[in-house]
C-alpha cells in the first residue's frame, strides 16, 4: 500500500517557514543536499532538476500534495512546479488551470485514502502545516530535515489543532557537517 510521506525542512523551533512565509534562510548548500537528492530526487522542482541533470525517475514518489500557500511560492512564473508528479493543490482558492495540476477543495483525508488505495508509488506531502495537521491521521512517515536556524515565529510543521496524539518511531537519523539533521519516523 502506498504511504503518505511528510518530507519537509524545519527550523530548530519547529517552523517550515518564517512569519512572512519566507523559507530562504534554509540551507540549500552543503553535504545534506546530496543525501536529500539521492533519496528524494523527485522532491526537486522539475525545472531545477532538468537544469542540474537529476534523474527523477528513481525517486519514491509519483504524487505530491500541497496547500495553497506552498503552491503560490512559485507563482506567477511556475504554475506546475512538479511536472514529473501528479500534483494536487488542496485549496478553496480559485486558480487558472495549470498543466498537470489538480486544484481541489475535497476533503484531504478522503483524497489521501483514495490515493493510497490506488496503485502507484508513495505520496509526498510537500506542505504546509495546516494541511499536515488535517492529514495527521494519514501520515505514515515523517522525514524532517532539521535546519540549524531559528525563525522565532512562522508556519509550524503542524498547525495547532484538535487531533489525537500520534506516536511515531524513529527509524533513522543522519547528522551532516552543514548542521542539518535528517530524521525519519514511521507511525508506531
Automatic annotation (TrEMBL):
Coiled coil: none annotated. InterPro entries: DHFR-like_dom_sf (IPR024072), RibDG_C (IPR002734), Riboflavin_Biosynth_HTPR (IPR050765). Pfam families: RibD_C. Residues 4-161 form the Bacterial bifunctional deaminase-reductase C-terminal domain. It comes from the Bacteria. This is Bacterial bifunctional deaminase-reductase C-terminal domain-containing protein. The lineage of its organism: Bacteria, Bacillati, Actinomycetota, Actinomycetes, Mycobacteriales.
Amino acid at each position: 500500500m502506498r504511504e503518505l510521506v511528510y518530507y519537509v525542512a524545519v527550523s530548530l523551533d519547529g517552523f517550515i517557514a518564517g512569519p512572512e512565509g519566507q523559507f530562504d534562510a534554509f540551507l540549500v548548500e552543503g553535504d545534506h543536499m546530496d543525501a536529500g537528492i539521492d533519496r528524494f530526487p523527485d522532491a526537486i522542482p522539475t525545472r531545477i532538476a532538468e537544469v542540474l541533470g537529476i534523474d527523477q525517475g528513481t525517486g519514491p514518489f509519483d504524487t505530491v500534495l500541497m496547500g495553497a500557500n506552498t503552491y503560490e511560492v512559485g507563482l506567477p512564473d511556475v504554475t506546475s512546479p512538479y511536472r514529473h508528479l501528479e500534483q494536487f493543490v488542496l485549496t478553496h482558492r480559485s486558480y487558472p488551470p495549470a498543466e498537470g495540476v489538480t486544484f481541489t477543495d475535497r476533503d484531504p483525508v478522503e483524497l489521501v485514502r483514495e490515493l493510497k488505495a490506488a496503485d502507484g508509488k508513495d505520496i509526498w506531502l510537500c506542505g504546509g502545516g495546516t494541511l499536515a495537521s488535517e492529514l495527521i491521521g494519514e501520515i505514515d512517515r515523517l522525514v524532517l530535515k532539521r535546519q540549524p536556524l531559528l525563525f522565532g515565529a512562522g508556519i509550524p510543521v503542524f498547525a495547532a489543532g484538535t487531533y489525537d496524539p500520534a506516536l511515531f518511531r524513529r527509524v533513522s537519523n543522519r547528522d551532516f557537517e552543514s548542521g542539518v539533521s535528517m530524521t525519519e519516523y514511521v507511525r508506531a
